[in-house]
Amino acid sequence: MINTWLEVAGAAFDTRLQGLPAFTGRASKSIRRLLAHHGARIAASPESFLVEGLTGALVEGELGRARAWGERLSGVTASEASSRRRQAS
C-alpha cells in the first residue's frame, strides 16, 4: 500500500459564523477525524476562522490569524521533512 512508504500530513480548518460552535457548527473537528482515520499524520490542531453573515467575508483580524496558522503549519511540515531526510541519510 502506498501509505506504507509515503507519509501524508494533513490539517483541517473551516469557516463559520460567530457564536457557540454547538449552534454554528465546526466542521474542522470532523475533517480532522476523517484525515486521521484515513492515515494522515495530523500536523496541527483543527482551526476555525470566523466569517460575517452569509457573504463569507472574514471577520476583521481573521485573515491575519489564518495566515499565521498557515505559516506555522508550513514550518512544521518543512522541518519534519528535513528531519526525515537527515534520518534517511
Commentary on this structure:
This protein is α/β, with parallel strands linked by helices and 89 residues long. It has one domain (2-88). The protein is built from three helices and five strands, in the order E-E-H-H-E-E-E-H. A three-stranded mixed beta sheet has the order 2-4-5. The chain has a two-stranded parallel sheet with strand order 1-3. 6% of the residues are buried. The model has no long low-confidence stretch (mean pLDDT 84).
Properties at a glance:
89 residues, alpha/beta, 3-stranded mixed beta sheet, two-stranded parallel ribbon, 5 strands, 19% strand
Query: Total helix count?
Result: 3
Q: Structural class of the helices, strands and pairings?
A: alpha/beta
Return the average pLDDT rounded to an integer.
84
Number of strands: 5
Rg, rounded, reads 16 Å
- What separation lies between the terminal Cα atoms? 24 Å
The number of domains is 1
Share in helix: 40-55%
Low-confidence stretches: none
Share of β-strand residues: 15-25%
Strand order in the sheet with the most strands: 2-4-5
Instruction: Report the principal-axis shape.
Output: flat
Q: What is the N-to-C order of secondary-structure elements (H for helix, E for strand)?
A: EEHHEEEH
Major β-sheet profile: 3 strands, mixed
What is the topological layout?
Blueprint: E1 9-10, E2 13-17, H1 21-24, H2 27-37, E3 41-42, E4 47-52, E5 57-58, H3 62-88
Parallel strand pairs: 1-3, 2-4
Antiparallel strand pairs: 4-5
